[in-house]
Specification:
It contains 8 helices and 18 strands. The chain is an alpha/beta fold. Strands 1, 2, 4, 5, 6, 7 and 8 form a 7-stranded mixed sheet that branches. It has a 4-stranded antiparallel sheet with strand order 15-14-17-18, with no helix packed on it. A 3-stranded antiparallel sheet has the order 12-13-16, with no helix packed on it. It starts with a helix and ends with a strand.
């Protein structure tokens, strides 16, 4: 790791007005491979504008990242001393196998009907995030074997908020019509950040100690920017993730080659403190993680594995924190996953652990009132050997109970005799994760989400 080098370089750069762009010139050879591709991530530009307004904020963000990296490094050194080798794989930090739930609000700020994306499109992005951050994405197997071996599951899940800051029920989506045709990265006064405030024709974020705020809007596309996010440690008013409506989720307005929701996966990685895999510099600058090879710049498109080499090693272009097309970024490394958990558990975003803005973060055994589909399912989240289910009335026909995992795979199925109204579901063989329980009877179909947590 080169955390000290990174810290000194970035502090000096921020005071000289270019906080994380110092390595941009070093990455030109890589960028030249695909001039027609988008720049993809706007974090560097956003940080440049922030450094003009508040250079100390950039220093504070960097200091927090380095503190968490030092905690990780010290823990791994202790593990190596005790066990003879550094711990490999999985997510680190306290109780690494538990699931962390982050209540999320999506602000859809639109100027045209097309920009007012559907609820289904919003939910598709939440599903993609949950798959990617749990290493449950179907395309993980596309990663080269050398990198699959060092991949990690952060065990972080995102749930659309069920209560707003005033305690009112919500679907976790805020829709605001704006007079702005697009939001661009100008100097006046906050550029893209105008989308984050009612007073600048955007939508004011909800408290960051209770929610992850995601803004979906029309980002000015001249620079090829798909989204951006600030790392932890900055202003609460700016905290969150911004994504162009053209690259959010995996349906609706999502446009190839960025139509699988990986832009948001990438930007949420920044929101949780990750740097780009090339450390925003060249071969002499590191992203802080030993299991992501050094690189001299971003990769674009879907590279030829035999030619994606820099700094004397294969580039991990499969990593969500590179710039490749959505279908080619499929993993976080184990140390990246460990770091994201640490920055939540130890510093930066700890208050989210106690946010009860979606019921996954509560100790409620029974979520209470029936869902719109008429099913009750309890306890939920479930940590025992079984859950109970119940309907508002007995069925008049035979039925079928089926359960699907987060990737849509059938994991349980059984027939139900006429007159069924309640029963139990064994969780034997169910791994941690989010499932969909489906009850069918005649033309009636009801479904309910089920969350299985550590037992």
């Amino acid at each position: 790791m080169k955390t000290t080098t990174l810290k000194n370089a970035l502090i000096a750069a921020s005071l000289a007005f270019s906080p994380v762009l110092a390595g941009h010139a070093l990455a030109q050879d890589h960028a030249a491979q695909a001039e027609h591709h988008h720049g993809r991530c706007g974090q560097q530009q956003a940080m440049e504008q922030l450094a003009k307004r508040n250079p100390q904020a950039v220093v504070d963000m960097q200091t927090l990242q380095d503190e968490v990296l030092e905690v990780m490094q010290a823990r791994r050194a202790r593990s190596a001393a005790q066990n003879g080798n550094a711990r490999q794989g999985g997510a680190g930090g306290p109780d690494p196998d538990s699931v962390i739930y982050i209540p999320t609000v999506v602000h859809v700020v639109y100027n045209t009907p097309a920009q007012n994306i559907s609820t289904a499109q919003v939910r598709s992005q939440i599903r993609v995030l949950n798959e990617d951050y749990a290493k449950l994405n179907v395309d993980f197997g596309d990663a080269r074997s050398e990198f699959r071996a060092v991949a990690g599951a952060a065990n972080i899940q995102f749930c659309l908020a069920e209560w707003d800051p005033d305690g009112n029920a919500t679907d976790g989506i805020v829709r605001v019509e704006t007079t702005e045709a697009s939001f661009d990265n100008t100097d006046s006064p906050a550029g893209w950040d105008n989308v984050k405030n009612d007073n600048t024709n955007g939508s004011t974020g909800w408290p960051r100690n209770q929610y992850l705020n995601i803004w979906v809007c029309n980002l000015e596309d001249g620079g090829g920017i798909l989204g951006y996010a600030y790392p932890p440690g900055g202003s609460s008013a700016l905290d969150g993730v911004v994504i162009s409506y053209r690259y959010f989720g995996d349906e609706g307005t999502a446009s190839p080659p960025y139509n699988l929701g990986r832009t948001t996966t990438h930007e949420v990685g920044h929101w949780l403190g990750l740097r780009h895999t090339w450390g925003d510099g060249g071969c002499g600058v590191d992203d802080g993680f030993d299991d992501t090879p050094d690189s001299d710049g971003p990769n674009y498109g879907c590279p030829n594995p035999f030619s994606a080499v820099s700094c004397g090693t294969d580039d991990m272009f499969e990593n969500y924190m590179d710039y490749t097309d959505d279908r080619c970024m499929v993993m976080f490394s184990a140390e990246q996953a460990e770091f994201m958990r640490d920055i939540i558990i130890r510093n930066g975003r700890t208050q989210l652990l106690s946010s009860e803005r979606c019921y996954f973060n509560t100790s409620i055994a029974d979520p209470g009132a029936d869902d719109q589909d008429g099913i009750r399912l309890w306890p939920n989240p479930a940590s025992g050997q079984q859950v109970q289910w119940g309907l508002e009335a007995a069925s008049t026909k035979d039925g079928m109970l089926t359960v699907y995992d987060a990737m849509g795979r059938l994991v349980h199925s059984r027939q139900l005799a006429v007159g069924f109204q309640n029963g139990t579901l064994s969780l034997d063989g169910f791994a941690e994760g989010v499932y969909t329980v489906v009850l069918e009877s005649g033309s009636t179909l009801r479904q309910h989400r089920l969350v299985v947590v550590a037992r």
